[in-house]
């Protein structure tokens, strides 16, 4: 009995440490965010990564060249770091599913990423093996992307291990041209 109470308490504590956002809150908020429209063309992004204490680990810029062909959104991302280091190149292929959700793949992503649109927002989740020093850790990314207007979005990512938020990414993106 005592072990069951401890197990329930531990589960509640761990679930309280994760970020949970209700996407239905954004269904009627303007402007509507369309993933394909926003990323079709050149996009510039600026971001930071902070550890769980709030300390800055990375500061970076991303040049994104997006294109849509045959219902597939391709994002060719090139990263440059002014603090820290990380991936230099990532190419996403994203397609909308029959259920109205999204599925995406990239070489450094473990399995498919999945996304759900909520009017003004998109919830995007995936796992990856994140290099840290000489080691690699399988972590879960939970991204919330919100539209400010038709040219600007913000992406807030929560990087989790064992259900705990280990780091957070804040990324601003602006459509170019």
Automatic annotation (TrEMBL):
Q: Which InterPro entries match?
A: DUF3833
Signal sequence span is: 1-21
Q: Which Pfam families match?
A: DUF3833 (PF12915)
Q: Provide the alphabetized UniProt keywords.
A: Signal
Q: What is this protein called?
A: Uncharacterized protein DUF3833
Q: Which organism is it from?
A: Eilatimonas milleporae
Task: Supply the source organism's classification.
Answer: Bacteria, Pseudomonadati, Pseudomonadota, Alphaproteobacteria, Kordiimonadales
């Amino acid at each position: 009995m005592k072990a069951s109470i401890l197990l329930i308490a531990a589960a509640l504590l761990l679930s309280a440490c994760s970020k949970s956002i209700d996407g239905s809150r954004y269904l009627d908020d303007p402007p509507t965010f369309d993933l394909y429209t926003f990323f079709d063309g050149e996009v510039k992004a600026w971001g930071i990564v902070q550890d769980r204490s709030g300390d800055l680990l990375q500061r970076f810029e991303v040049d994104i060249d997006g294109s849509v062909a045959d219902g597939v959104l391709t994002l060719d991302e090139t990263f440059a770091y002014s603090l820290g280091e990380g991936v230099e190149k990532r190419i996403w292929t994203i397609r909308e599913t029959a259920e109205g959700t999204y599925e995406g793949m990239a070489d450094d992503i473990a399995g498919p990423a999945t996304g759900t649109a909520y009017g003004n927002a998109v919830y995007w989740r995936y796992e990856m093996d994140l290099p840290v020093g000489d080691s690699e850790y399988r972590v879960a990314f939970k991204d919330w992307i919100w539209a400010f207007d038709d040219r600007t979005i913000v992406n807030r990512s929560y990087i989790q291990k064992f259900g705990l938020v280990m780091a957070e990414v804040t990324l601003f993106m602006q459509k170019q041209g």
